[in-house]
Structures are given as C-alpha cells and as structure tokens.
Amino acid sequence: MSENNKYILDTSAILTYIEDEDGSEFVEELLIKAEKDEIIIFVSFVSLTEVFYITQREKDESEANERIKLIQSLAIRIQESDEDINIRAGKLKAKYAISLADTYIASLCQYHDGILVHKDPEFEKLSSIIKEYRLPYKMPQ
After folding, report:
1. Is residue 1 part of a domain?
2. Among 9, 38, 98, 103, whose Cα sits 20 to 30 Å from the Cα of 123?
3. CA torsion angle for 18, 22, 27, 32 (degrees, to 10)?
C-alpha cells in the first residue's frame, strides 16, 4: 500500500458517488482501489445516519434503506465511535464551530491519519489539522 493509503469519505462524498455528481469519478476510483486492497476507506457511523435522513427527506424511506444497503456492500470499513473518537470529536466541537456530525468525521480522519474526501465547505476550518481532498463544491442555485 502507498503511504497515503487511508481515506475517510464524508457524507457529501458518499452522496456524490450515489447521485453521480461532479467528483463521483474520483470516489469511484478510490472504491476500486479499496476493492483491490490498495487503500483502506473508512466511513463514520454518523455518515450512514446522514445519508439515511437526507434520502428519506428528499425521496422516501425505501430509497434510504436501499442506499444504506449499497454503502454496506462497498469495500469500506464503517467505523463506530469509541472513547478516543468521542474525546477527539468533543475537542473539535469545543474549538471549531462545526456540526457534531462533522466533528465525528474529522476525528475519524485524525484517528486514522487519513485523507478526508468531501465537498463540505465547513471542513475548510480544519484544513490546518487534517489532510483533505476537496471534491467540486455544488454551486448555489
């Protein structure tokens, strides 16, 4: 495996892949590399919650369930929280004005010393403390 072999997909990266948005090809390339054991991809438990509720709001519960099944079928590791991640997330929440979900995702990135893949401008506040790959941001409509 290469030196930068750990990636963390933010909820926005997962939805980019599922909805075939701008940047989905990069996420797909990562997933292919993960299938070949060339890299490791982690997804926070909180991202599954976000994908579910966003999809249920925008579509319906059936589609939300299908998306969760799809995510679980991918070559990723779904990371539950533990004491270390909780403390890291708490420190990030105390210091930076970001959402609780994003603190868990960023703390997972720190925990694994990985590269965060996202299209969430909120993570720009953490650019000095996490490695990141920014997917193309959505343009306001």
Report:
1. no
2. 38
3. 90
Amino acid identity for residue 135 in this structure: L
Burial, 121: exposed, middle or buried (Cβ in 10 Å; 0-12, 13-18, 19+)?
A: exposed
Instruction: Name the residue range of residue 14's domain.
Output: 6-134
d(CA 76, CA 99): 23
* 69-93 tens-digit pLDDT: 999 999 999 999 999 999 999 999 9
Q: Residue 124 falls within a domain, yes or no? A: yes
The DSSP-derived string for 26-49 is HHHHHHHHHHTTSSEEEEEHHHHH
DSSP letter, residue 23:
T
**pTM, two decimal places:** 0.93
Start-end of H helices in 23-119 = 24-35, 45-58, 61-73, 83-95, 100-112
- The answer to whether 126 and 96 have CB atoms below 8 angstroms apart is yes
Mutual angle of helices 61-73 and 45-58, in 10-degree steps: 150
- How do beta strands 131-134 and 115-118 pair? parallel
The domain that contains 94 carries what CATH number? 3.40.50.1010
